[in-house]
Amino acid sequence: MKITFLGTGTSQGIPIIGSDHPVCLSENSKDKRLRVSVLLEWNDYTFVVDCGPDFRQQMLRANVSKIDGIIFTHEHADHTMGLDDIRPFFFRQGDIPLFAHQRVFKSLEKRFDYIFTTGKKYPGVPSVAKIEVKNKPFLVGDLNVIPIDGLHYKLQVFGYRFHNFAYLTDMKTIADKEVEKLKNLDVLVVNALRIKPHISHFNLEEALELIERVKPKRAYLTHVSHYLGFHDDVQQILPENVFLAYDNLQITI
Ligand SMILES: [Zn+2]
C-alpha cells in the first residue's frame, strides 16, 4: 500500500490567513500544511480519508485521476467541505462511494442537500453511494478495514486500520478496547496538535503516550498546528521511530 499525506495541518491549515507567526512565515515546504487527509493506493484501488476544503488542490497536486471512495472520520468542516469537488470524478466514474457514520451522513445531507436529494437535481450536481460505517469491520475495495472508535472532545470519531496501517485523526480519548485493535502495526498515524494540552485533540505528549502503548514499528504525527513548531525542530526531539508527517510525504508498507 502506498500512502500519500495530502494534508497534515489542523483546521485552519498552515500558514493561517493573515498570521505573522514564524511557523506561518516559514519558507520550508514542510511547514506548509493543507487540511488533513491521506490518499491510500493498493492494487488498482485509490481511496481518500476525508475531503476537506483543500480537496481539489490535493487531488491536482497528487495527480489523482480516479477515486474508489472517500472514507470519513467525522463531519467537521476541515474534513468534509471539499465534497463538491468530487464532480470531476463523478463525471468520469458515476456515483462516488462514501463511507461514514450515520451521524456524519445526516450532517452532510444538511450541508450538501443538493448532492443527497432524491428529487430532480440541477444539471452537473454529483451523486454518491452511501455506505454506513458502524464500529465493526467492513470491506473497502478488497481490504477488510477495522474502525477505531474514539472521542474528539464529546464527538464520536472513527480512525481506521487498513491491514498493518492505522490512521487516527482528531482523537482525544480512546477506550482500552479500541487501543487493543492497534496491536502489531507497521505504521500508525496519529494526530498531535501542539505542545500545550487541548480540549479536543491529542497534544504531542498524549500522541507519544499512545505510540508508546501501541508500539507500532513506525509512527507519523499529523493534524498539526503552527504552535507545534517548525518541522525540522520538532523532528529532532521525537523518538527514533516517530516522524512528523508533512504534505506530499509518501510511505509504502
Ligand atoms: Zn480536524
Automatic annotation (TrEMBL):
**Gene3D superfamilies (alphabetical):** Ribonuclease Z/Hydroxyacylglutathione hydrolase-like
Q: Which regions span the lipid bilayer?
A: none
Name the InterPro entries for this protein. Metallo-B-lactamas, RibonucZ/Hydroxyglut_hydro
Recorded source organism is Winogradskyella eximia
Source species, domain of life: Bacteria
Q: Which Pfam families match?
A: Lactamase_B_2 (PF12706)
| Alphabetized PANTHER family for the sequence | HYDROLASE C777.06C-RELATED, HYDROLASE C777.06C-RELATED-RELATED
Q: Which residues form the Metallo-beta-lactamase domain?
A: 34-223
User: What is the protein name given in its UniProt record?
Assistant: Phosphoribosyl 1,2-cyclic phosphate phosphodiesterase
- What SUPFAM superfamilies does this protein map onto? Metallo-hydrolase/oxidoreductase (SSF56281)
